[in-house]
Amino acid sequence: MELVIRQLTDIKINSGYLRHGTNVENLKKSIESIGLINPLTVNKNNELLAGSRRFQAITELGWKEVEVHVVDRDLLQQELISIDENLIREPLNRLEVETCLNRGREIYEELNPEAMKVELSIEPSEPEPKEQENDNHNDSFAAITAEKTGLSMRVIESAIKRDALASNSVKQARSQGQLSATQTNQIIQLDKDLQEEVLPLIADKTVKQTQEIIKAVKKSGMEAAIAVNDNIVPMPSEYILIKSPVKRMNKSLSRILLERMKYEGPEQEMINKELLELKENLVGYFNMVEEN
């Protein structure tokens, strides 16, 4: 890898993996204070492979030239460099992470055919026993990425499967907030054609209801899934949203009462006000239930 000086105007931004237009104010302050610690990475054609936020920051600071690492790699290796940069430098949304992880996995496994591969199965996979771990497993894309990002291998492998196995409609539903990751883990147990058929049934369902519908599809087909769906009483989204918070609040309140825990800090008044409003809403809610 060669370290040289390049004019900023000569550097080309062609990679679709690089993040542009993000907030770099803190990065600019750091560069002004201690300089650019990590040089940009470009290929022999001066195309930026890694360091888009650093490039944005120094451009905004008015720099004219910068030190860069020039790498001489094939196209797949260059793409993998950009994916790696994207994963570890700037937070991505869930779908962007999954897309990057899956594409990174494809490239890494092509470049390293001897490495342990992520098994892309439509059936839920059982975790490997520890005694089956070997050197290849430690060299897998999931293991290396886990070490870089701090994510667990299980999380990385699940993310890869969601991108690799989900149909386009399922991905679109996720991007629109209609499906959770857990629901997606259920639906990708079906082949993509079946995913398209079952998606309208589960887009507004809870995780438990989704599991029931997918189980019916796998066991007896779409007609059985439709029958299960017809027997499900729809739950308004407002009820879905309060289920988990209510459980957590009851647990916390029970502990506070049991231990007679007291708090007299600056936020006490705000907490008491919110709890009193909650009390009023609960009284109103149970009055409504009794009326029905």
Describe this structure in words.
With 292 residues, the chain is an alpha+beta fold. The N and C termini lie far apart (74 Å). It folds into four domains: 2-88, Conserved hypothetical protein from pyrococcus furiosus pfu- 392566-001, ParB domain; 92-125 and 135-164, no CATH class; 166-230, no CATH class; 237-291, no CATH class. The chain has a four-stranded mixed beta sheet, sandwiched between helices. The radius of gyration is 25 Å and the shape is extended. It has helices spanning 25-34, 52-60, 75-89, 94-111, 135-138, 141-149, 153-165, 168-175, 181-187, 192-202, 207-220, 222-230, 237-258, 268-291; strands at residues 2-7, 40-43, 48-50, 65-71. The protein is built from 14 helices and four strands. Mean pLDDT is 85; it is low at 124-136.
In brief, what are we looking at here?
By secondary structure, the chain is an alpha+beta fold. Helix content is 59%, strand content 7%.
